[in-house]
Amino acid sequence: MPKQPESKQSNKLDIEAISLGELRTLLLKSLEKIGELEGIIVVLSEEIARLKGLKGRPDIKPPAKPSGMEDGTKEKKGGRSMHRRGERRQRTTPIDIILNPVHVPEGAVFKGYEDYWVQDIEFKPKLTRYRRQRWETADGKSIVADLPRHVKGHVGAELKRFIIMQYHQGQTTIPRLVESLDAMGVEISKRQIVRILTEGNEVFREEARSVLRAAFARAKWIAVDDTGARHKGKNGYCTQIGNDDFTFFVTTASKSRINFLGLLRAGYTDYVLNEFAFDYMRKRNMPDWAIAKLEEHPQRRFSNEAAWMNHLADLGLINVKVHPSPELVATEGALWGSVMDHEFLQDAVILSDDAGQFNVGLHALCWVHAERLIYKLNALCEAMSQAKEDVRGLVWDFYKELKAYKKNPTAEDKDDLSRQFDIIFGKKSGYAALDRLLGRLSDNKPELLVVLDHPETPLNTNISENDIRTQVTRRKISGTTRSDNGRDSKDTFLSLLKTCMKLRVSFWDYLGDRLGIPPPSPIPPLATILAARYS
Predict the structure, then answer these.
(1) CA separation for the pair 477, 471 (Å, rounded)
(2) How distant is the alpha carbon of residue 481 from its chain centre?
(3) Is 167 inside a domain boundary?
(4) Which of 73, 204, 355, 486 is an S-S bond match for 400, by CB 3.0 to 4.6 Å?
(5) 439 domain residue, yes or no
(6) Cβ pair 97, 120 in contact under 8 A
(7) Residue 86 per-residue DSSP state
(8) Is this prediction's pTM over 0.85?
(9) Domain span at residue 395?
(10) Measuring CA to CA, how many Å separate 419 from each of 12, 398, 413, 414?
């Protein structure tokens, strides 16, 4: 049998005294150790980057659109990229098992190890009985030993984490969760699972709100969208707010501009009359006499909706039959004043699909939605079809030039793109419906070309549509939420789930840390990680 390399080497070696075979063995062992250390360095480097909130390597592609404009204008990449095992994030510390060949012929040379990876997982119920000593004093009072501090209720933290993870990230229904857990030997009822999902989650809600405030304080742009959501058997709306670094969901009964402006306060309830509020009112053509009444009154801050509405009533600005309504515009202005007073969205772009309620502040429009309007036009003859396709081709080419401008913006290209826009959307094709649409899009030039002054702004709302898909899936699975706690918890956990994904934080580890389960390393507040990205 060949001589196996020794497990330990002395601190001092006489290189001249050892044989060539022993020297080779020593070299192989040294190279093996260097490889192990390099692997550890990779794992630690990625962990440090994750804790600092830095972006990792994964590139999440936006979903394809029906018109195909986004995919059609992508630059073609040469060759295929392959992810090697060493480049993946090491989530679990491996258990090393050394295997020796059954037979090694005489003269064979040891060449280190060849790794073969096997992933597995272990599911098994765990039932703990705390036998609390109970004493009775001479006067008849009972003394019972206290439970450990980490014990909160009859469901342990690991089981809570599993239920929250499966329900929100796994999009599992409650009945199926009960069936799965029962099959694994866990006795739990639907009512218990509902309580885990909906009660005692104030800490998570506060963290989601703190993420929103941190983003509003520093973000250069946000994208917004909404979708239908039923609550207590009634139709409502779920609004999405987010960008590359965070996502926030909130379900309300309304999708009005007042509702949206209220959401932009990020949990604050005040109304503020300041220069931003009055500027907003003037831009919305509120009557001068109504603005004067508000300006002449010394009170400028109102703690909540009731105080604000009482102020409007005292000034005679409620139910005034003029257009636009002073009550409506003044309320929108005071909400915008509050947003600015909290120093949220300072010079930030608000990107939307042209839904009217989102048209506030520095507003930008999605090019994919704009082109989709042309795509959906019904051409009744060959000439109309050709005219439509010609315009679509021009828009696709212009969109590609905007994408190139974002990478290298110059004043010369900015002026050139502005002129090109006027030429494309000022065309007269003779196709009446198409010409009317081009005129409408031409009127939206400032919002479609916000990117010329703010190149960091995306050209589409793909990120919003990707985010909100989780809410759509949840709606299809569960239909309606039945309590306010259930509605808020659904929005909160889906917000945190999406935010964790964007911050490259394991949602499983995040839940474990917040529920008191020691993860591989502590997860700092998500708002802190987010703020580090903007620093």
Answers:
(1) 10
(2) 22
(3) no
(4) 73
(5) yes
(6) no
(7) G
(8) no
(9) 367-452
(10) 77, 11, 10, 9
